[in-house]
Amino acid sequence: MKKILATGGTGYIGSHTVVELIQAGYEVEIIDNLFNSKATVIDKIEKITGVRPKFYEADLLDEEKLDQIFAEAKYDAVLHFAGLKAVGESVEKPLDYYRNNIMSTVNLLEAMKKYGTHEFIFSSSATVYGEQEQPECVETMETGRSITNPYGRTKYFIEEIIKDYAIADKDFKAITLRYFNPIGAHSSGLIGEDPNGIPNNLMPIIMRVSDGRIPELQVFGDDYPTADGTCRRDYIHVVDLAKGHVAALEHMKNGVQIFNLGTGQPTSVKEMIKAFNEASGKELPYKIVGRRAGDLAEMWANADKANEVLGWKTELTIADAMRDTINYLNHEKEEHGE
Ligand code: UD1
Known about the structure:
This protein is α/β, with parallel strands linked by helices. Helices cover 41% and strands 18% of the residues. It is built from 11 helices and 15 strands. The chain has helices at 12-23, 40-49, 63-72, 87-92, 94-115, 150-168, 202-210, 238-249, 269-280, 304-310, 318-335; strands at residues 3-7, 27-32, 54-57, 77-80, 119-125, 136-137, 173-179, 181-183, 217-220, 232-233, 235-237, 255-261, 267-268, 286-289, 300-301. The chain has a 7-stranded parallel sheet, sandwiched between helices. β1, α1 (12-23) and β2 (27-32) form a beta-alpha-beta unit. α1 (12-23) runs parallel beside α2. The mean pLDDT is 96. Bound molecules: uridine-diphosphate-N-acetylglucosamine (UD1). The site of uridine-diphosphate-N-acetylglucosamine has 19 residues, from α7 and β9.
């Protein structure tokens, strides 16, 4: 069985993927600098799977440490989740984003080359599509042109670095996964999305409104050209997303392959609120406010390529994601004695 290194493996998407990998029989090790996650996630992964992954608290910018880690373990594949991801912050601190996200990837690819690890899976984002003429995104569309922030551009630049590197190293096998909007949590309630600081994304904000940490949800605009006027996105359950990585690992081949990971179905902000209310049995307080700069009216994945080539498709619904999110929130409250 392949030995895997997961960078950012204690983060939201990383931790769910580590669980699925262990359950599929892979040996997994984790590197994380805990910038936006907690070491206790390792205990939770052990609780769910019965296996404790080896954990290195390390920064990918620390080349010496990275070299030591690679020298010790012979990895077959690297899954690269680690990275800064706050859109607003990236506008304020672009150089932090370029240094962290891009240099860390270059360091990782160099360590892989030195120690003979050829398989690489990269966590990219639907953000690389920017604004397109049509809202359904297909992998063959041009990317990079209308990205509105440095965070999004780091994802685009890294995708290009991977393509260039694959031309130079004929043994290199890469898969770039473009995530749409990940939501939900593991059904155990033990792991989920728990960002440090003030969240920017819809679901973490809904979670904080539901337990009173934020007084109300601000809905950014209801005058978009959609049925109910609010923006529509392709929300994918994080466990489905995690399973997409397991499918990808089983389909590595020389060169670069790119896949959208989404459901193929858009959901509006108002529909998300309704789904949350149905799952919680409560009314989430919200207010319609002005549009957020840079938001697109709607975008969703065309997931045909992942369905056909990887034999993967999403199985969980928005209702499942809402139920699992609430379950996770309740577990967190219990754990912290509230
Ligand atoms: C955002 C980023 C994208 C990034 C992704 C990561 C922007 C413009 N895009 O995507 O680059 O890859 O997160 O997950 O920031 N909403 C509200 N009120 C809120 C928060 C969000 O109404 O308080 C709405 C937004 O207008 C949007 C939807 O909820 O329609 C989803 O927002 P969000 O979770 O931030 O995701 P994206 O904007 O799709």
